[in-house]
Design brief:
Elements lengths: L12 H14 L2 H24 L3 E3 L10 E6 L4 H10 L19 H5 L4 H5 L1 E5 L6 H22 L1
Antiparallel strand pairs: 1-2, 2-3
Helix pairs in contact: 2-6, 3-6
């Protein structure tokens, strides 16, 4: 209710019905299969990053995260530089959430996870979508590996 529980309020019926419909939708076997496929591609992407790019750390839990989300930090590379370089190659990534993308400051989430400001500024966030396939992941890895290597050489 409203007024600190003293008066009843108008319930958001449309929101309640929509939430119920969403709960039913996530139980759909097709959605579950899609989530498994995305998680497998995400895990493949993370494994490739850790294998092919030195001095990288995964931000957050490898197990307890969204199926389509990857966030990593590259030592001695500004995350924003990677975003620009990949964008020039047609790959859309970010340094953080969409709501904080315009701010050029360390992610408060990464700082709360115990990352240093420098590590947080070197982070890259990648999200796999419904249309992402294995060829996309391989394409990103080829370009990402070369990009990080080139940016690190540029700093020396």
């Amino acid at each position: 209710g409203q007024e600190k529980g003293m008066r009843s309020g108008t319930e958001n019926v449309a929101g309640i019905v929509g939430f119920g419909a969403a709960l039913l939708k996530v139980q759909d076997p097709k959605i579950k299969l899609h989530t498994i496929k995305i998680r497998q591609m995400r895990d493949s992407l993370v494994k490739s990053i850790l294998k092919l790019i030195p001095d990288v750390q995964v931000n957050g839990s490898l197990k307890n995260r969204l199926a389509n989300n990857v966030n990593v930090s590259f030592k001695d590379v500004e995350g924003f530089e990677v975003v620009v370089a990949l964008d020039q190659r047609g790959i859309a990534v970010s340094t953080g959430s969409a709501c904080s993308e315009r701010r050029h400051e360390p992610s408060h989430v990464l700082l709360a996870l115990g990352r240093s400001g420098k590590d947080a500024m070197s982070s890259l966030r990648m999200t796999l979508g419904r249309g992402t396939d294995r060829q996309d992941v391989e394409h990103v890895m080829r370009i990402l590996t070369k990009t990080v290597e080139r940016l690190r050489k540029k700093r020396v």
